[in-house]
Amino acid sequence: MENLRKTTLLAIFVFGAIFRIYSQQPYLDSINVQIGNKMEVNMKILSYDSLRENMEKDLKSLQTILLGRKEFPPQGTYAITYEPNAKLSVKPCEAGERIIWDKGGLTRYTFDNRLSILTDKYILQIQFNDPAEIVSENLQKNLLEVIDSTISIKGRLTTVYHFSFQDGKLLHYSQLDKRTGQEDVLALNGGVGINLIKGQPVIDLSAQLGMILCKKGIWKNQYYLSYNQLSYFPDLSNAELNGFLNIGYKRNLSNTVGKPDWLGVEVGYLLSRHGDLFPKNTMRLGFNWDIAKFVSVTPHLYVSGDFREVFPAVRIGFGF
């Protein structure tokens, strides 16, 4: 009954981890677009799902609202903020100076007005002078063409893409594209652990070789092989050494660089056995959680080769 209770708790732990993994939303790409010397656009893409359709719908809705306003365009310089199906505001602002491409080179240019569209799929920010450009069909056409081009080249790494429309033709300045955030790495780690196995304290030394893969600028998935050498002292003059070879996977549940939340699972096999702490052909299943930098907690479930002996344990690990 006790083993069943502990197994049930482990199952709940795993289910909660899976729920957290699939409920998160990673950061995605940014797209910079210059339309001649009339307009500069920046898109921060939060989700590519139905992005094209949503942006087309939102732009049409905004243009209809603006064309229906008697005071449009307003006097002076102004900033328009639009949240689809929520609110629209038009407020005075100061003109902004930007660096743009002009005749094959970079030059400073002043845009009087700003437009921001804020949604849960994307954030669109436009610098412009002529309000006629905001309500034209060309704006929709150009931005949708950029989205189509970006979707065809987007990858797993977070990237800032640079495009420009010159004489009506879309140009991709791939030499200016920049990857941001973390990238894939090969990691070699070591550590020590304090285990409680069958009510007995057991010390271990560990070595781990892993591959950490990023997703949109944040380390997300880690696959690794590790070895734990456990030292058990049945008496003060003798030490029994047992070694487990493990294969594991971890998932970072955080979307903040520098504040990871790693949760994982590993399977191990008793490769080297001495003494009677572990039965022959013992395997173990562990669920590990990094509770702080270089500190992890791993509950284990040990199973003998003939399944006659099943017992839980727990390890607190300190990495370096």
What structural class do you assign from the helix and strand content? alpha+beta
Number of domains: 2
Q: β content, as a range?
A: over 45%
Distance between the termini: 38 Å
Helical segment count = 4
Percent helix: 10-25%
Mean pLDDT: 86
Largest sheet: 9 strands, mixed
Number of strands: 19
Order of helices and strands: HEEHEEEEEEHHEEEEEEEEEEE
Radius of gyration: 29 Å
- Low-confidence segments, given as residue ranges, are 3-25
Shape: elongated
Keywords:
alpha+beta; 4 helices; 8-stranded antiparallel beta barrel; 18% helix; Porin
Describe the structure.
The protein is an alpha+beta fold and 320 residues long. α2 packs antiparallel against α4 (137-153). Helices cover 18% and strands 52% of the residues. Strands 1, 2, 3, 4, 7, 8, 9, 10 and 11 form a nine-stranded mixed beta sheet that branches. Strands 12-13-14-15-16-17-18-19 form an eight-stranded antiparallel beta barrel. The model is unreliable at 3-25 (pLDDT under 50). It has two domains: 30-179, no CATH class; 182-319, Porin, CATH 2.40.160. It has helices at residues 2-22, 51-67, 131-134, 137-153, and strands at residues 30-35, 39-45, 78-83, 87-92, 96-102, 105-111, 113-118, 122-128, 159-166, 169-172, 178-179, 185-197, 200-215, 218-235, 238-252, 262-272, 283-292, 295-303, 310-319.
